[in-house]
Amino acid sequence: MSEETTVRPLVDWHSHVWLPEHLGPEWGPELDSHYTHVPSHHGTPAEHRAAMDRSGVTHSVVLALRSRHLSLDVPNEFVAEYVATDPGRLVGIASVDPNDADAPARLRYAVGDLGLRGVKLAPPYQDFHPHSDEAYAVYRAADECGAVLIFHQGAVSHRRGVLDHAQPVLLDRVARDFPELRIIVAHMGQPWPHEVVPLLRKHPNMYADLSARCTRPYQLKGILLAALDYGVQHKLLFGSDFPTFDPGEHARALLSVNEGADGREVPADVLDAIVHSRPLSLLGLGA
Ligand SMILES: [Zn+2]
Description:
Elements lengths: L10 E6 L7 H11 L10 H11 L3 E5 L1 E3 L4 E3 L1 H8 L6 E6 L7 H10 L5 E4 L1 H4 L6 H13 L2 E4 L19 H7 L5 E3 L7 H10 L3 E4 L7 H14 L5 E2 L9 H9 L1 H5 L6 H9 L11
Helix pairs in contact: 4-6, 8-9
């Protein structure tokens, strides 16, 4: 009798596919300079599928991304085409830029015609304020067509990213005005996860993913403990942010968070340098 193996579900709530030409003149080089372990061209559908298979990912949420501000566009059609190759495992999320006058219409098309299930918005990448009229037009369209909203509501490393629009607490008003909308705060709103915790607590339809947090074990452990403190741990979602991070490695890092961060010490030379090696000349204020 053959032994039956049970496959445990593993949903990657945050992943990307793209081709180099989608990333534009700024963002591709930006990714390459920050994530030297993985070149930005490493994000094709074939590579995404291979990463899922070797990592035991049973379902993957795949995001488009469009930003006029940074001249990048991972098209909704491209994501939809990939999702259509394996609709049982893949869930596609569109991206529209609220700065486009036709953004609400693009979203309705992406959901109604392309079969995508939600929309990714990224105020610091797209340079829009989450409370602007343009953004509210997109939220209304999402509400009407039942789309999930995924917000990159957190910092970005890109020099021209707009952190004025980035803080997670700005989503409180959005969730109050659209109580039925399902909202996912990507990357747990890094580096402001403590703003996300009270949002998760007060808004029944708000969730947060832990994508790209697993390489920062101390922060990750702080997030998990804060979520436990407030009783919102059931609203945390696993995510990898593939291709920047591998889903299997990310899952292993999450499962071993207690080993990674426990007892971690700040190196003595770092402490010493903070106390003794910050001369006024650092900011041009003296010797
Ligand atoms: Zn991402």
